[in-house]
Amino acid sequence: MTATVPTVFVVDDDPALRRSLHAMLVATGLQTETYPSARDFLAEFDPQRPGCLVLDLLLRGGENGLELLRNLQARPVHPPVIVLTGHGSVPTSVQALRGGAIDFIEKPLRPAALIARIREAIDIDARERDARGHQQAVHERARRLSARERQIAALLMDGKRSKEIATTLAISVRTVEGYRARLLHKMQAESAPHLVTMLLVNDVKLRT
């Protein structure tokens, strides 16, 4: 299996439900893996694998779906989580939403609604991974800047123009313009405003 194919990870202690969900999701073209416990899931969990998690909140054997949810939320990368709940456990499900789950679905499950929500969760995961990848690329480009380029970028972020930067650094405006051109090239920015926006949105720290 390729790690780039989104996978629906199902954690539920009911063997019949696991089999049913696996058959249903595979029939709709979704790659699916099932686990009987949070412990089994975490033993094989790889944050680099895209997809989403369908999690039963009320697991047997002393395990609690909320504990798994908190465990995942504490990690820098984790899949979107849809929680499954039985009737009468809505307050717990609300707690799960506050803990980071994107939705909860009551049992008995409505297949069409569950599949639609799973596809939305996979889309959310893809967008978040794209955003993280873009942010990492911006930070990597920023790390390659020279000390002077970082100085000038920081002053651009302060809203200073080339003449003001030249005065601050005691260099010529022409020299500032040369550094600025190299900055835009290295950071793959179309303009100074684009560069500043890129650095701010991706929380790039230029001053030590």
Describe this structure in words.
- With about 210 residues, the chain is of the alpha/beta class.
- It has two domains: about 5-130, Response regulator (Rossmann fold, 3-Layer(aba) Sandwich), CATH 3.40.50.2300; about 145-200, Arc Repressor Mutant, subunit A (Orthogonal Bundle).
- It has nine helices and five strands.
- The protein has helices at about 15-25, 40-45, 65-75, 90-100, 110-145, 145-155, 160-170, 175-185, 190-200, and strands at about 5-10, 30-35, 50-55, 80-85, 105.
- Helix 1 (about 15-25) links the parallel strand 1 and strand 2.
- Helix 6 (about 145-155) packs across helix 8 (about 175-185) and helix 7 packs across helix 8 (about 175-185).
- The longest helix is centred in the middle third of the chain and has 33 residues, at about 110-145.
Query: Could you report the average pLDDT, rounded to the nearest whole number?
Result: 90
Query: Level of helix content?
Result: 55-70%
Which geometry do the CA atoms define?
elongated
- Domain unit count: 2
Q: Structural class of the secondary structure composition? A: alpha/beta
Tally of alpha and pi helices: 9
Give the C-level CATH assignment of the largest domain: Alpha Beta
Strand content: 5-15%
For the biggest β-sheet, the strand order reads 2-1-3-4-5
CATH architecture of the largest domain: 3-Layer(aba) Sandwich
Radius of gyration: 24 Å
The arrangement of helices and strands along the chain is: EHEHEHEHEHHHHH
Uncertain ranges: none
Secondary structure tally: strands: 5
CATH topology of the largest domain: Rossmann fold
CATH level-4 homologous superfamily of the largest domain: Response regulator
Distance between the termini: 44 Å
The main pleated sheet reads as: 5 strands, parallel
